[in-house]
Amino acid sequence: MYMVSEIFDLKGRFISKVLRTKKNCLLFILIFSIIYILSSTLVLNFYDIKKIQILNFLFSFIIIFEVCLKVSQSERFILWIGENLDKSFRLFIMFIIGLNCTYFYTRLTLQIIESY
């Protein structure tokens, strides 16, 4: 996300406060990973493996959602997709892309977990 925010010059609330410096980015990755591992362990202990898909969806959606919305408002994306397209359609396109990325991530992690 750090590189994506630099390429598209994103200045979201979450991005600018957390991911602008590499030190903050590494700290965020560490904290996020610890919270994810602990919550995944709890879900696996109390529920079935299939329930971890919900947790994967929530965590990946948190990561991807703001980035996709900010990319849809960036000048580079507007020039690429066309200036005539309405802002709501650009947001909708990036929202769908974010959901597809999240779905791919959740299916991939479930397949990895089930393979063990």
How would you describe the overall organization of this protein?
- The chain has 116 residues and is an all-alpha fold.
- The protein has one domain.
- The chain contains six helices and no strands.
- The mean pLDDT is 77.
Topology at a glance:
Elements lengths: L1 H6 L5 H6 L3 H25 L5 H21 L2 H7 L5 H29 L1
- Can you summarize the main beta sheet? none
Q: Give the helix level as a range of percent.
A: over 70%
Mean pLDDT: 77
Overall geometry comes to: globular
Multimeric organization: single chain
Number of helices: 6
- Rounded Rg: 16 Å
- Give the terminus-to-terminus CA distance: 29 Å
- In total, the number of strands is 0
Order of helices and strands: HHHHHH
Number of domains: 1
Low-confidence stretches: none
Secondary-structure content class? mainly alpha
Beta-strand percentage range: under 5%
